[in-house]
Amino acid sequence: MNDSSTARYENSVKWLERAERTIPLGSQTFSKSRTSFPVGVSPLFLTRGQGSKVWDVDGNRYIDFINGLLAVSLGYGDPDVDAAVTRQLASGVSFSLPHTLEAEVAERIVDRVPCAEQVRFGKNGSDATAGAVRIARAYTGCDRVAVCGYHGWQDWYIGSTTRDLGVPAATKELTHKFVYNDIDSLQRLFDEHPGQFAAVIMEPMNVVWPAPGFLEAVRDRAHAHGALLIFDETITGFRYARGGAQELFGITPDLATFGKGVANGFPLSIVVGRREYMKLMEEIFFSFTFGGEALSLAATRAVLDKMDSHGVLQSIHRQGQKVLDDVAAVVARHGLDQVFRLSGHPSWSFLNVADTARYSQFEIKTFLLQEMFARGILMLGTHNISYAHDDEDIRALTTAYDEVLAKLSLALAKENLTEQLHCKVLTPLFKVR
């Protein structure tokens, strides 16, 4: 670590040391911890945000392309959301009976989402996906689940990843992975365990677009084998289209889950589906003290209304497409097409990193983050666009990429990349996309 890095992040490092005395990893979330941010060259703690900007504990300002892991859709401190929450705060947060906001927000969800006839609320995406899987198991009487993408921390899913410590073997055996855009990988699961699948749960899109006919084939194979189709729209919902990816692609699942940006950073997740399946919520146990917490519901109502009245998604998609086009041009200009590839949806795009003959993708990504953070860009390899991102933000991102990729190209040519790292190389948490 060089002296300039030490000075820039001095308070971040101190806060990490303090936090780790009482918090494992010093963070409540893996993706916000030192497993994702290289210590010594990264901001590790933030103090405030406004619009598209955030400030760390050392006073450094960043344009934020992480946005609370896609939870912030409008921007920090959105005035309409904050006003709605402030009004609700004056009359209460959690009540002894349901609040009318629960029905109001549920009606708005049903109005927007093709598969939604009934709605239940949770707090995290993991709540919602676990609830949807429980519905499917209750409805079908089967136990096995086919998964594609990331679906949260609970045993039923995380046991299928390398982060499976503490998950019973019997639980792991019931979850099976298939490969996106590879319908044969799903069919093999059905062939290996005929009549035993309760559900196919998948992110309808993440890194790449669905191949023609793929989502239709998943739906048809699931139904042919007695399983329900669940779309995990925790990220794609209210981001890809007004009614989510299911509206964009014209494929209506049996159940779907939502969360992240629906409340602009306030904690809310959603399970929706056809009434025939959702009525089982009256029998299975899916119940939270804070499921009807009113501040998050007030925020959600404000977010959904603003999305309709202010052309929010159109703006997000327009700005995100500029990022895809501009960054791709920078990559090409520096001759790094074999190292970097842009993919994804304009609202949630990916800078995919490949190994070179000499350097691993993790060495390259560590260098990239080190240099982007130093230039006031907060990112983790994706571009999570909010309504607050303006043209100036996009130009700043492109300029930073131009400078960093020029420096990277030279380091690769001189084969001295690792000598320019001022921190330890990142190691992967686990790969799900």
Write a brief caption for the model.
This protein has helices at residues 3-8, 10-19, 67-70, 79-89, 100-112, 125-140, 155-158, 169-172, 183-192, 214-224, 245-249, 275-278, 294-309, 312-333, 361-374, 391-414; strands at residues 46-50, 53-56, 61-64, 118-122, 144-148, 175-177, 197-202, 228-233, 255-258, 269-273, 340-345, 348-353, 377-378, 382-384. It has 433 residues and is of the alpha/beta class. A hairpin with a 2-residue loop joins β1 (46-50) and β2 (53-56).
Order of helices and strands: HHEEEHHHEHEHHEHEHEHEEHHHEEHEEH
Biggest sheet: strands side by side, in what order?
A: 4-10-9-8-7-5-6
Which CATH top level class of the largest domain fits? Alpha Beta
* CATH third-level topology of the largest domain: Aspartate Aminotransferase, domain 2
Q: What is the CA-based Rg, rounded?
A: 22 Å
Per CATH, the architecture of the largest domain is 3-Layer(aba) Sandwich
Shape: globular
Which whole number gives the mean pLDDT?
97
Q: Uncertain regions: pLDDT < 50 for 5+ in a row?
A: none
Number of strands: 14
Structure description:
The protein has helices at residues 3-8, 10-19, 67-70, 79-89, 100-112, 125-140, 155-158, 169-172, 183-192, 214-224, 245-249, 275-278, 294-309, 312-333, 361-374, 391-414; strands at residues 46-50, 53-56, 61-64, 118-122, 144-148, 175-177, 197-202, 228-233, 255-258, 269-273, 340-345, 348-353, 377-378, 382-384. By secondary structure, it is an alpha/beta fold. It has 2 domains: 3-76 and 312-420, Aspartate Aminotransferase, domain 1, CATH 3.90.1150; 79-309, 3-Layer(aba) Sandwich (Aspartate Aminotransferase, domain 2). Strands 4-10-9-8-7-5-6 form a 7-stranded mixed β-sheet, with helices on both faces. A 4-stranded mixed β-sheet has the order 1-2-3-13. The model has no long low-confidence stretch (mean pLDDT 97).
